[in-house]
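A favour, since you know our C-alpha cells better than I do. Go ahead and set the record down below.
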Amino acid sequence: MRINKKKFIYLISPNKIKKDFYQNLNKVLKLNKISFFQMRFKKYSFKKKILIGKKIRQLCKNNRVKFIVNDDPILAKKLNADGCHLGQKDINIKEAKKIVGNKIIGITCHNSIKLAKEAIKNKANYIALGAFFPTKTKKAKYSANIKTLNKVKKLTKIPIVSIGGITNENYKKLLLNNANFLAISGYIWNNKKYKPTEAIESLK
C-alpha cells in the first residue's frame, strides 16, 4: 500500500449524517490531505448504509481517496468499496478476504503487540492502534502508547494507523513517532471552533 506523507489523514465519518455532510465532505476531500475515508455508522440500517455509501463512494472516487467500510465485508462488497476495516470482534481477516477479495483490509489491534503480530501473519494491509488520547467519538476501552507504536513499527512495514482523540495539538507527536496515518473523526466533524475544512487545514 502506497504511503503519501502529505496525505496522512484517515478520515472517519461522523456518527450521524447532517444535511450539509456531503457538501462538507466534498470540500474536505478536495484539500488533498486525505488518503482514506471510512464509513462508520452503527445505527443505520443496511439499506440506508447502501444509499449513503453510494454517494460517499462517488465523492471519494472523484477526489482519489480510498473508500473503506467499517465492520462489514458484505456491505463493502455491495458498495464496491476499496476495502474494509475490522475490529477484533468482527469476522476474521481470512473470512473477510473470501468476501471482499483482493481489497484493503485493516484491523484494530488496540495497544497489543500480540494482536499486531497476528494481523501481520494474516496479511492485514494496515494495523490500527489506539486510543492514543481521550476521545468522545466512541467509548475507548483501550488506550495505546508511543512505546507500542514504535515496537510495532520495528516488526513490520505494514502501515500503522493511529486513532483516538487526535487534534492539531497532539498529532505531530504521532507522526514524529512513525505513525503513517492518523484516523480522525470528532476533531473534524464536531469541532466548535473550526469548520471541517478549517480543522483539516490546521493539521499542516
